[in-house]
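Input (structure):
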């Protein structure tokens, strides 16, 4: 399956090189793969595979991976205590690499929301419970994503951004504005792939996968439901600091990271408070994602 996306940085349409594409095709298109998909995508097996990426043996995968996907390593700093000659001790340490200071400036205009992930984005001005991701046919269902009656009404018909992180991407996620934490909880589930091929084959992935939900009170964009969605072979969804109620955070501050695997971050807002950037909205209507760098403008006040 060919995956096209609009690259805001180059202002061109790009083609995605998919990691593990043959496995994904087998898992979601073949009869044998479909029969085993529920077992393979259960948390213990997915987490076990993720744990393997923490072994010293996994380090051997790093150099071939960088070469295959042409990753510019000058943008990243080595693991603590490592040198440029051998920057990462395991594949997971490479996977959660950090940008060098200044490589990803954060938009400082109070009317503009900062991109919280370096990823491919879909965006909607208003989402109801029967909305589908263009082309893929996957239901978003905000109520099911949030999975908490306390907050369902707050985000009814609100704007939504869906950021898909590929295995080749930077896998830390950040706060989109200044604010404080109102609530935080986990929703148990499976670990299906979030690759477009998988989403097209199984429409309920986004609402049945493991999720971590944090409700934010932001300075400029009202309340936000910030949802990290686990995916196949994701070892863990990690939070950088405890998400205690009342804790303040800054725009662009690191919130957490995914261990090995492709993943998704979804942000849902209050109706009319903000809207995704025009290019994201335009390409979403055609079924195409928009690729952004971390910290770029991703939305503006409604």
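Output (sequence):
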């Amino acid at each position: 399956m060919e995956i096209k996306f609009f690259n805001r940085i180059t202002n061109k349409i790009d083609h995605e090189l998919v990691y593990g594409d043959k496995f994904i095709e087998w898992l979601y298109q073949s009869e044998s793969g479909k029969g085993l998909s529920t077992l393979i995508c259960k948390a213990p097996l997915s987490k076990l595979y993720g744990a393997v990426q923490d072994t010293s043996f996994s380090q051997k995968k790093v150099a071939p991976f960088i070469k295959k996907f042409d990753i510019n390593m000058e943008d990243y700093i080595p693991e603590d205590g490592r040198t440029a000659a051998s920057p990462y001790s395991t594949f997971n340490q490479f996977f959660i690499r950090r940008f060098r200071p200044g490589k990803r400036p954060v938009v400082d205009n109070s009317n503009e929301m900062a991109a919280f992930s370096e990823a491919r984005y879909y965006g909607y001005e208003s989402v109801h419970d029967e909305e589908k991701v263009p082309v893929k046919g996957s239901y978003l269902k905000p109520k099911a994503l949030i999975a908490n009656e306390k907050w369902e009404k707050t985000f009814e018909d609100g704007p939504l951004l869906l950021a898909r992180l590929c295995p080749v991407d930077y896998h830390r996620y950040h706060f989109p504005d200044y604010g404080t934490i109102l609530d935080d909880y986990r929703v148990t589930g499976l670990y299906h792939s979030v690759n477009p091929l998988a989403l097209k084959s199984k429409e309920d992935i986004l609402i049945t996968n493991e999720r971590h939900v944090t409700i934010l009170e932001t300075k400029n964009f009202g309340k936000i439901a910030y949802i990290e969605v686990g995916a196949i072979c994701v070892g863990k969804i990690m939070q950088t600091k405890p998400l205690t109620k009342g804790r303040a955070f800054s725009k662009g501050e690191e919130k957490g990271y995914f261990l090995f695997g492709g993943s998704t971050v979804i942000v849902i807002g209050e109706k009319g408070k903000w809207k995704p950037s025009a290019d994201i909205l335009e390409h979403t209507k055609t079924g195409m994602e928009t690729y952004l760098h971390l910290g770029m403008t991703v939305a503006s006040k409604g």
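Notes: Residues 20-28, 33-37 have pLDDT under 50 and may be disordered. The chain has one domain: 1-302.
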